[in-house]
Amino acid sequence: MYTWFTDLYASLLSRYLARKLHHGLLFSGAKGIGKFSLAEQLSHTLLCKQPTVDGPCGHCQSCHLRAAGNHPDYHILESEKQLGVDKIREGIAKLSGTAQMGGNKVLLIPKADTMTEAAANALLKTLEEPTANTYLVLITDSINKLMPTVLSRCEKHVLPLPSIQQSLNYLHEKGVKEADEALLGAYGNAPLRLEEALEGGDEFNYRVFSDGMQALLVSDPKMQPQNLSSKWQDDAIQVALWCQLQAQQNYIQHQSPRYYAHYSACVEAVRTLQHPGVNKSMVLFGLLKTFQR
Ligand SMILES: [Zn+2]
Predict the structure, then answer these.
(1) What is the mean pLDDT of residues 138-167?
(2) Separation of 273 CA from ligand 1 center, angstroms?
(3) What is the fold of 3-159?
(4) Ranges of each domain in the chain
(5) What is the pTM of this model?
(6) What's the CA-to-centroid distance between 239 and ligand 1, angstroms?
(7) DSSP string spanning 228-269?
(8) Rounded to the nearest whole angstrom, what is the distance from the C-alpha of residue 51 to the centroid of ligand 1?
(9) Which whole number is the average pLDDT over 182-207?
């Protein structure tokens, strides 16, 4: 679990030990802050036979089974795209009856917003009247995609972004040495998104973009709007958003109408790029041309 969740985890844990933890929890927050790690750590504690204020003991049979990936009362509901009603029913069925290990049963739904309407409806009853010793932990990046009926039955925790310093400390410890405030900002201040982009072998990341833009502005003949727009067209929306971020930072620093014009062009480009069938390369070309002015 990530250090920025330490306080929240401690408070959830102490409520659990005091038998005051709600059975249906929802963790929402930006993508790339590690929400799953918090849910996982909490689940491990819920399954442990002798949890303490430090969390799961790590020695009991439950902890061993869980560590081996074989705990019979621990279920994670994942699905490629949409989480359908069958999958939810399957999950609920596993929660009926007593826990095989005699402790708690935990059902984790990492992408709760991918539940279809029927799936969400199927989950309502369990959220309302769960079987004994049952906990459901839902996670989402997009809380507004969840049905109000699901939301109202969960105890909601909005997980904030870690501070810049916490994120940079984490990234530097992980060996992502080039991480700095600007780079982090390009990934919405979400440290795991930046880590993935730089370390996950993404061919196109902010560094590539930033180098390309610099070359464009000094009129490097190999890095002209024509080349860049065709090279970057698959990531067109991301490029436009990064251009927008640069324009915004420039405008804040220099207050020049030139940068305001860049910013407006970006907003327009992002909007245009949302349309299916749009010629992305052409839109980017126009945008990058604006940046040369
Ligand atoms: Zn244990």
Answers:
(1) 96
(2) 51
(3) Rossmann fold (3.40.50)
(4) 3-159, 164-291
(5) 0.82
(6) 47
(7) HHHHSGGGHHHHHHHHHHHHHHHHHHH--HHHHHHHHHHHHH
(8) 6
(9) 86
